[in-house]
Amino acid sequence: MRALRAVSARNRPGRAPRPGRILLAPTAAVPVPRPPAAAPPAPATPAGLPAAPPVPLAADGLPDAAALGAKARAYAARAPATLRAYRAAWAAYTRWCGWLGVDPLGGDPYVIGMYLAHCADRLKLASIRLQLAALAEAHRRAGRPFDRRHPDIARVLDGIAGTLGSAPRQVAPVHGDALRAMLAALPAGAVGVRDRALLLVGFGAALRRSELVGLDLEDVQISAEGVRVRLRRSKTDPTGAGAVVAIRRGRSAETCAAAALEAWLRLRGGAPGPLFQAVVKGGRVRPQRLSAMAVVRAVKGAAARAGLDPATVSGHSLRAGLATAAAQAGAPLLAIMAQTRHRSVQVARGYVRDAELWRDNVTDQLL
Q1: Residue 46: predicted pLDDT
Q2: Nearest-5° angle of CA 207, CA 315, CA 76?
Q3: Where is this region: Disordered (predicted)?
Q4: What is the architecture of the domain spanning 1-12+22-30+69-168?
Q5: Cα→Cα distances 145→16, 97, 132, 135, 166, Å
Q6: What tens digit of pLDDT does each residue of 14-56 get?
Q7: In degrees, to the nearest 5, what angle opens at C-alpha 50 toward C-alphas 74 and 273?
Q8: Which of 85, 109, 143, 226 is the most exposed place for a label (fewest CB within 10 A)?
C-alpha cells in the first residue's frame, strides 16, 4: 500500500492524498462494449423447416468476419446482472487509472495488483474477484492481453484472501417457525397477498431472486398436487435449457404455495406478463415486473415485522431455507440438489452442513 500511495501522490495534481485514503478522479469512461441484440428467428421454409440463417457478406462477396463475430458475441452474452456488475467495476477502474495516469487497457499486472490492493480497503473478497473478472472480460473484448494468473496479481489476491478471509458470508436460512412468523406478520391487502405467494413460491422452489422475479404467468401451473414452476433460464443455466420444479400443496392453507398463488392470481388477473407485479397505492396492481431488490425488501420487511433481525436475512434466505429444512427432515442430498438445481455437490453441501453437523456425529459414541 505504501507503494500505491507513493504512486498516487506523484500522479495527483495539487495537494497530496490524505493518509490511508485514495480518492478517485473522473476521467473519460472506457465502457465495455455491449453485445448487439440477437437477430430474430429466421422465417420457416414452405416445408416447415427453419430456413438457413443468412451469412453476412462483405463488399467483396466473402463472409464478413466482423459481422459474424458480432453475432457470436450476441449469443455469448452474459446475464444482464453480470454485465451491470462488470460495467460498474470497469467504470470504477477507469476512474482510478485516470487519476494515476495509466492506460486502463494496458494489462500491466503490477497496476492490476495495486488496484486489487486498493479495493481491499472497501470490498470483500468475492467482490474483489468480481472486479478482476470484469477487467479480464474488458481486455478480452478489446483484444488486449490480460493474464489474471500472473504472479503480481496472484500474490496480491492470495494476500487479500489471507487478510480478509475466504469464507463467504452466509445469510440465515428462513424456514420452520421463522417462515411461519414472517407469513403471519404480513400486512393485509394486496401487498400482503402478493408477498405471501412470493415467499412461499421462492421457498418451495428454492429460487434465486432473479429466478423469482423472472417468472411469467405462463411459467406456473396450479393443480390438485401443487404448483409446477418452469424456469426458462437461471444462473447455472445460461443457455436456457430450462427446468421444472414442483411444490406440493402445504399441510395448512397458511403455508401452502398453491393456495397463496391462487389468492394472488385472483388479484393480479389473467393477463400475460410478469407473475409478480408491482402494487401501488390503493392496492392497485400494475403490470410492472418486480426487481430483484424488491424480493430483498419483501424478505427483510417480513422478518422485521415478525421480530427477527432483518440484517441476518436476504432474498437468498428462502433458497437456503428450503435446503436446510430438507436436510433437517432427512432428505437425501441428491433429492435436495434436484430441487435446488445445484450442479456441484460441494456447493450444495454448504447449504446442508449445519443440519448434518449433528447427524451421525462420532462423539455420540465417545462422550
Answers
A1: 34
A2: 60
A3: 1-20
A4: Orthogonal Bundle (1.10)
A5: 33, 17, 14, 11, 28
A6: 444 444 333 333 334 444 444 444 444 433 333 333 333 444 5
A7: 60
A8: 143
CA atoms within 13 A on the CB side of 294: 17
Of 211, 241, 251, 250, give the one whose Cα is nearest residue 229. 211
Q: What is the pLDDT of residues 252-306, one digit of tens each?
A: 989 999 999 999 999 999 999 999 999 998 889 999 999 999 999 999 999 999 9
- CA dist 229 and 221 (Å) reads 7
User: 3-state secondary structure string, 327-355?
Assistant: HHCCCCHHHHHHHHCCCCHHHHHHHHHHH
Task: Tell which residue, 286, 297, 201, has the closest CA to residue 249.
Answer: 201
- Residues 75, 53: Cα–Cα separation, whole Å: 14
User: Between the CA of residue 76 and those of 40, 54, 80, 87, what are the distances in Å?
Assistant: 16, 19, 12, 17
